[in-house]
Specification:
Number of domains: 1
CATH class: Mainly Beta
Oligomer: single chain
Number of strands: 13
Distance between the termini: 54 Å
Number of helices: 2
Mean pLDDT: 89
Radius of gyration: 20 Å
Structural class: mainly beta
CATH topology: Immunoglobulin-like
Helix content: 10-25%
Length: 250
């Protein structure tokens, strides 16, 4: 009987711990205030990115657009950004179409090598959280017009919070149309790199799209843009409570 009482107590304790953990997860979900959403369409067969966002696969995807600063208080129509997403059993894809006036990139560097502080020049970014209950853990992907890149594993409870040594093994490619003043980009991110076994239709993740455009960091004009606005006093990009939603559909 003593062994039975201990077992019951242990089971009850585990159940209570599980309920507490579930409550914390629901509490985290309730902290999200980002109201924007995007649909990611399923693809039976994937493809290797080449920077061409006019290919047939992207014509099936719903596109969203944004052209305001990260606070949502100022509009930059001349540098409007369009984004779409697709998914397969092994990857999630993103496409960007970025209007520009001039390009600001790091020149004379090897685009095959990861570039720290890439965000100080022109880039498009996605901050992606496949496990929304854990608000402080997500992944950062960014690419410049010349295909320089940076990927980071983010844990806001860790110091320093970005893990720059992490390598997702992702694919990305860009193109620049100087005549139309548009540069385009495609991402292909392996689900396994984010410890995701697969995606189910109807599932939702949290994410935000960003773009930096213009002169060097601190110079004018400098456009710091966000799809889901970030409300003051939170003025940094690493504010996951403002992430929007991506919903995966067939």
């Amino acid at each position: 009987m003593k062994f039975g009482r201990i077992s019951v107590a242990l089971i009850c304790g585990l159940l209570l711990a599980g309920l507490a953990a579930a409550g914390e997860g629901e509490k985290s979900l309730n902290l999200y205030t980002g109201a924007v959403s995007i649909e990611s369409k399923h693809l039976r067969h994937g493809f290797v990115p080449d920077g061409n966002v006019d290919k047939a696969e992207w014509k099936k995807a719903p596109w969203i657009r944004f052209n305001t600063n990260y606070l949502g208080t100022e509009e930059y129509r001349e540098v409007e950004t369009e984004v779409a997403s697709l998914w397969t059993k092994d990857h999630i894809y993103f496409a960007y179409r970025a209007h520009y006036t001039t390009l600001n990139t790091y020149e004379g560097e090897d685009a095959a090598q990861e570039r720290w502080k890439l965000w100080e020049r022109d880039v498009v970014e996605v901050f992606l959280n496949p496990r929304p209950k854990d608000m402080h853990r997500y992944y950062q992907f960014e690419v410049a017009p010349n295909n320089q890149w940076l990927d980071l594993d983010i844990d806001l409870d860790r110091k320093p919070f970005p893990n720059a040594a992490w390598d997702s093994g992702w694919d990305h490619a860009t193109r620049v149309d100087e005549k139309s003043k548009i540069w385009t980009c495609e991402f292909r991110i392996p689900l396994a790199s984010m410890k995701v076994a697969g995606i189910r239709p109807g599932e939702t993740w949290r994410l935000n799209f960003y773009r930096m455009d213009g002169k060097e960091e601190g110079a004018k004009p400098r456009h710091l843009m966000s799809w889901s606005p970030i409300a003051p006093p939170h003025n940094g990009y690493h504010t996951p409570q403002y992430f929007g939603t991506v919903r995966f559909v067939k």
